[in-house]
Amino acid sequence: MRILHTMLRVGNLEQSIAFYTEVMGMNLIRQRDNEQYRYTLAFVGYGDESDGAVLELTYNWDTTEYDLGNAYGHIAIEVDNAAATCDAIRDNGGKVSREAGPVKGGTTVIAFVEDPDGYKIELIEKKAAQ
Length: 130
What we know:
There is one protein chain. The chain is of the alpha/beta class. Helix content is 16%, strand content 40%. The longest helix has 11 residues, at 13-23. The protein is globular and about 50 Å long.
């Protein structure tokens, strides 16, 4: 068994695809419309779906926003340098909600950014080989 994808409902598909591809550096892997049920699915990720998990962006044509609730936590992405990644995200119009720094009670460097719908994305700095 393996994790295939995580689905996020988005209010503006074009804006979300732009964020994940242009700001977060992912690739648009595939996209399809379902006219009968009025939704579009777009899959984004850093590699082929056969090699790792991706995000499924679900756009329901008649819904522009969602209540994120209090159960959702975050998506985690490993980065080489959390501070530099925050700068690049900010420079590309992204929102940094927690600057890079050590996790409370630890040494792992993390940061948080938010996508256009307010979903939180944790950036976890890759630890140097010891």
